[in-house]
Write a structure and sequence with these properties.
Blueprint: E1 2-8, H1 10-13, H2 20-31, E2 35-42, H3 46-59, E3 62-66, H4 77-84, E4 89-91, H5 93-106, E5 119-121, E6 125-127, E7 136-141, E8 144-149, H6 153-172, E9 175-183, H7 188-201, E10 206-212, E11 215-224, H8 227-245, E12 249-252, H9 257-267, E13 271-276, H10 282-288, E14 297-302, H11 306-311, H12 317-322, H13 328-346, E15 366-371, H14 395-408, E16 417-421
Parallel strand pairs: 1-2, 1-3, 3-8, 13-14, 13-15
Antiparallel strand pairs: 4-5, 6-7, 7-8, 9-11, 9-12, 10-11, 15-16
Length: 425
């Protein structure tokens, strides 16, 4: 089956808003094994919308529209699609009752034009909008399936997942299960080159490479009668991909690199302190975007100016004058400084110690990181001589997270030093 997406809204054509609905829906259709061959954006003009819908009807099995379901005069998506498919518009009383109750609840008068939202194509499946006022709907006519969703992402996103995807799941037939193998350190073309032979030979499961900002991933999708059958088909393929991609894989079916880093720190009872310069706090932001980051993240210092490096982090003026702010020597002193500063604010004062053996058994080690900007995709982690004897499984993931963060910020250089310090009794 193939689908076509039609976004209705002059504001999209004018560039006032970005059509994030299309991205969400396309990703969902891919998971369902439904192809998307065309996406169209059309303004709030019934004649042009009708022309676009008729074209979609000729070439797609499923038509999905977003936008144009509201109460205003130019919201004409339902009416236009009903005309194209020969459907009558009828009042859906439950939707009208919801509208009435909504306006009573907020203490406002419901104007006459709002009633328009409760008029839907006859015989359609109604998607109740729990996140707004305009219901969505779906119907089958002339051998085509038509789905209509509201345009605002705060409404479209949950309605797509809660209403539209279950509706389409029944049409797709069977069961579809995907695994996402997340990769950092390889570009999409390099990853595709490594997986090329597997991709050519594999029809079910399928393997597809995708690029994201500063990283990429491979999606492996199997289709079978049951989820258990899908999983059985996926396991050997995923295992083979993991062998081929090696250490560049940082997780399977994980949300983000920062989530994996956080889980690793939490499991190992490590805490983390960050000193940043050119990244301007981006690394700390990514770390703290994860719920529960306070379990391991102590805090950070964004030392953009040299004076902050000196006064707050204890970087020597001589170092800044001789080798400069963007240097291994400065990065190491920043890392030591932030480790010492934040260890003092948590348990008690502690210097950076050279090895794990020097720590009391009850302590929690503090990792401190000093990061500058970079455009490199994969960089070695350098440890200062003081911590060279210490090895931690989290280090490769931290390296990737920092490189990812600073790649995103489009800076030019990185030196990473990892220092471990331990709160003393």
């Amino acid at each position: 089956m193939n689908a076509e997406l039609i976004a209705v809204g002059t504001e999209i054509l004018l560039g006032d808003i970005v059509n994030t609905d299309a991205q969400l829906i396309s990703q969902g259709l891919s998971e369902l094994g439904i192809n998307v061959f065309y996406q169209t954006v059309v303004g709030d003009n019934p004649a042009r919308l009708e022309r676009v819908v008729r074209e979609a009807k000729d070439r797609a099995d499923i038509i999905i529209t977003t936008g144009g379901l509201g109460p205003t005069l130019d919201d004409l998506t339902k009416e236009t699609l009903a005309t194209v498919f020969g459907k009558k518009m009828v009042l859906h009383q439950p939707s009208m009752d919801r509208l009435t109750d909504f306006f009573k609840t907020i203490g406002r008068e419901m104007t006459k034009n709002n009633e328009k939202q409760a008029w839907l194509p006859e015989g359609c499946t109604v998607f109740t909008n729990l996140w707004g006022t305009a219901p969505g709907c779906a119907f089958e006519a002339d051998g085509k399936h038509v789905l209509m969703l509201p345009g605002p992402p705060r409404e479209c996103n949950p309605m797509w997942k809660e209403c539209a995807m279950p509706y389409l799941y029944k049409l797709a037939g069977g069961c579809i299960v995907s695994r996402n193998i997340r990769v950092f350190g390889l570009g999409e073309s390099n990853m595709e080159n490594i997986l090329h032979d597997m991709m050519e030979k594999s029809a079910n499961p399928t393997i597809a490479p995708y690029a994201r900002t500063s990283e990429c991933f491979a999606r492996v999708t199997a289709k079978a009668d049951t989820p258990a059958e899908c999983e059985k088909m996926l396991d050997p393929v995923v295992d083979e991909i993991l062998k081929l991609l090696g250490d560049d894989v940082y997780g399977v079916d994980v949300d983000s690199l920062e989530q994996v880093v956080g889980n690793g720190l939490r499991e190992r009872k490590l805490t983390l302190a960050v000193a940043e310069s050119c990244t301007g706090g981006l690394l700390s932001k990514r770390l703290t975007d994860i719920p529960g980051a306070s379990d391991y993240y102590l805090g950070g210092v964004c030392s953009y100016s040299n004076s902050v490096k000196e006064k707050v982090l204890g970087v020597k003026k001589e170092t800044l004058d001789t080798v400069g702010a963007v240097s291994p020597e400065t990065a190491e002193q920043m890392a030591v400084g932030v480790a010492n500063a934040l260890a003092r604010t948590s348990a008690s004062a502690s210097p950076a110690l050279p090895a794990r053996a020097a720590a009391p058994r009850t302590s929690r080690p503090v990792w401190s990181i000093s990061a500058f900007g970079t455009t490199a995709s994969s960089l070695p982690v350098k440890c200062s001589p003081r911590s060279a004897a210490t090895v931690c499984a989290c280090r490769p993931l931290l390296r990737r997270l920092i490189s990812s963060a600073v790649t995103f910020s489009k800076q030019i250089y990185i030196e990473l030093y990892v220092i471990l310090s331990f709160p003393l009794k």
